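Homework-ish question, so no full write-ups if that breaks the rules, but can someone show me the predicted structure for this set?
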Amino acid sequence: MRASVRIGCGAGYSGDRIEPAVELAEQGRLDYLVFECLAERTIALAQLRKARDPRAGYDPLLAERMRAVLPVCVEHGVTIVTNMGAANPLAGAEVVREVARELGLHGVPVAAVTGDDVLATVTDGGFAIDETGAPVESLGDALVSANAYIGAGPIVEALAQGARVVVTGRAADPSLFVGPLRHAFGWSAEAWELIGRATVVGHLLECAGQVTGGYFADPGRTDVAGLARLGFPIAEVAADGRAVVTKVPGSGGAVTIATCTEQLLYEIGDPAAYVTPDVVADFSGVRLALDGANRVRVSGATGQPAPATLKVALGHRDGFIGEGQMSYAGSGAVARARLAGAIVEERLRLIGLRPDAIRCDLIGVDALHGAARAASCPDPYEVRLRVAARTRTRAEADAIGREVEALYTNGPYGGGGATASTRDVLAIASTYVPRARVACRVTMEAS
Amino acid sequence: MLLRTIAHGRAGDKGRRVNLSVIAFDPADYPRIAAAVTVDRVAEHLAGLIAGPVLRYELPQLAALNFVLERPPGGGVTETLALDPHGKSLSAALLELEIA
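A: Not a homework solution, just the prediction itself:
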């Protein structure tokens, strides 16, 4: 068994930057490099791509990321674990092998983890939508995806079989880190305290740059040096689960107690009960201590047994959102933008278009916090009107943007820069399934 | 004094829920923050932006508080018409709180 493991995070979301991941792979002296690329909606969108093309449905940047990091990972013996398989881990794993062969890297074992797609199970009856209590099958044809959040188990299995790249679907974010740590240290799945500690490591790293100084800088208050070259994080984890969070020496950003505390509490409810497929982790006793420049020591986490059910994200179509924007400048800009918004709303009534919901925002005035904004702020020199509405049909959604554009020749003085857009609403609901109903499988093949 | 002068924080989201951390720059300020930033003050300060009860969790060893809030109906990340669908900018709104 190893004394310690170095694990890094090369992506905190699907569209994340690739250059810091390459820097991590080259200079991080890593054992494992994790790419966390799935948000609630990402996998539902991927299922829609797969429905159109059975060979699609994995992360759109998968091939580009692999081309960038695979050669250096193979050379340095860094194992890659990622949920970039999204809705199609088998096709994703094949893409990784194709990239490997294209780069002359033969014999790289690539594993696909499947089984998180439980669409057939949850529409079989007996499952209720958590938010509404209605049966899942009441969503009918609108339901486009049902993916269970799976844990570290199949990742451990793939690594035990010798995988150098593990491609999963909806593995929970921290599980991508728990898997390699369990494998490297030989921890049992029921070593709750250790799994709780590993989950804290995963949680701190899973948003990549958000723990190394990203999403933190406020000039004059919380300055961060070298943000343009923000480095991605590394955890040095000991066999007892204690860890130090750091980053590549010489990269931009900062790892401080402040950046780690913000990330530790990011997307957390009760800190004593952070529920994942692997454990109910307890962050409430976590301690952070500075251990030199850009090094923060993490200790004190623990864990309770994993829940008996797995959470399932249900992606379903829920109408459309149409949007239009127009800018106004100079004296009276705010009044003209308000007049323009009122005109659009009245015109929608006149043409008989009744959206499910509509709002008019003045970007730069009240778009973010509406009437609750601080009253002390003066009106700006320029302002941008935004009209957004949720509708049942695409044609109605298109009409929202068209009405805003029509403000050019039919609205107040001086509007400029109109834009219009329509998008499908892909809503996410949840349900829970017993673990026994989710059968995961590892499929291994070398490049 | 505004809360932002002695504390920092970050917003996170899960569906209709938003969590807002409030972390003292200097741990010595934690008791003062814990006394001033009560669930009632937060609910009052963010009125109109949130619905339902405000939960507060205390993490004294991190000099931090964690607030869990619910956004108004129709305010979930995927269906909201809001310009900031995740509610990430709510953290900056909370840090504008005037404290003694």
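Now go work out the reasoning yourself. Hint: The longest strand of chain B covers residues 51-59.
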